Amino acid sequence: MIKTIVLFHRDLRLHDNPALTAAAQRGIVIPVFIWSPNEGAFGDEGSASSWWLSQSLHALRQRLDGHGLKLIVRMGQRSTVIRTLLHETDATAVYMNGCYEPDCRNTDDNWVETFIKKGIEVKQFSASLLISATKLLNVQGKPYKVYTAFLKKFHTSSVPRPLPVPKELHGLNEDIHTETIDNLPLLSSNTWHLKLHNHWEPGETVAIKRWNEFLKTSLIEYKDGRDFPGDEAVSKLSPHIAFGEISVRGIWHAIERNRVFSENPKLHSSMDAFQKQLVWRDFSYHQLFHFPSIRTKPIRQPFEHFPWHTDAASLTNWMHGQTGYPIVDAGMRQLWETGWVHNRVRMIVASFLTKHLLIAWQEGERWFSNTLVDFDMANNAMGWQWSAGSGNDAAPYFRIFNPILQGKKFDKNGEYVRKWIPELRLLPSAYIHEPWTAPKHILDAAQVQLGENYPFPLVDHSVARQRALEAYQQIK
Questions:
Q1: Per the annotation, does 95 bind a ligand?
Q2: Are residues 263 and 248 in the same domain?
Q3: Per-residue confidence at 341, pLDDT binned at 50, 70, 90?
Q4: Does the keyword Flavoprotein apply (predicted)?
């Protein structure tokens, strides 16, 4: 039978995996994962997402074992490793689902061209987005910079239907050397990542189960509840999606199937809102593909000259949830404890860093890349540029979130703050988002000692807001 290497990237699943399906139709499938941190497919992950990758690879290996396939794990330059494997296995082709990260794409383009010239069949498929990032262009043939225009164009196209797990999968009979997953340099020497086991279970099987439960029980509350971090109205699928454990095309079409069988306008409204978030994810990858420097450089040129501050102490306080603004600190502590933070709170903490503290968004992007289990380059960079006002279709820089009002609006009774800041748990709701305004007897009764067990605010909101607006005037 014809042998095909299937190279896994951020597509750690068997369902809706076009490369796997095409290889299965050819004959024998040889699944391969290559750890090549200098070539962009993986390696930018921080401690949290590296932990997720290690666990997801274990889950993938088990899934493949159940279908009679052995996952071959190697380390090294992809072209060298693949050349070696072609020789060891007598495979005649390499199939993979393409990546959009700039270094990964450039590396793959180089070795793919070389291999094809040598007569080796190499095919790349699209699997990570609803619609390939290369397909949606405006009437001038240029990339979109505004989400609403992108969304309108998106709706003129159709999302491909997801592929099932191949019915027949044939693996190699030979024993080919593989590294053990635990030998990959994914887990840091510190033990910070160990607590992530308390909050997450990576893998395709869990991802599908989580999605089906959300679809049946919680999706109806999504539109009304998604901005309230104390509620359970969000799916928490983002890390599963980031590593390709579940197909976004499968999610899209599952919503469409369920839409047909429901006449509930609230459910339809939540379905629309959820699908728009999936399209926003496509838009983020559209930006990464066409503006590959998005992770390190502002897309809007004036922001290259923004007068950012260098303030290591304030940055550290922000990282560890010690800013004195409870909604900000709750979000940063949730991130440190779980590797994830609610999307509304992501916007609040990002606004605080870039506008209240005037610290460059790249600092926040780096911290999130290290601590998020759902880190992916496109969404993280797009989110930070949106918050800083420096990206395409970003929030205007002069839109400065008031962390007090944001807390009162989206965590009215303080449940979220109390969960992540236990030192404030006894504080009445009237003061939970601005404890420095509480009378001394209220603070004493709540066992809150400002400046001791909870900090005073790093900056005054009104002063910080005026300072940010003055900084913005310098680049207008």
A1: no
A2: yes
A3: very high
A4: yes
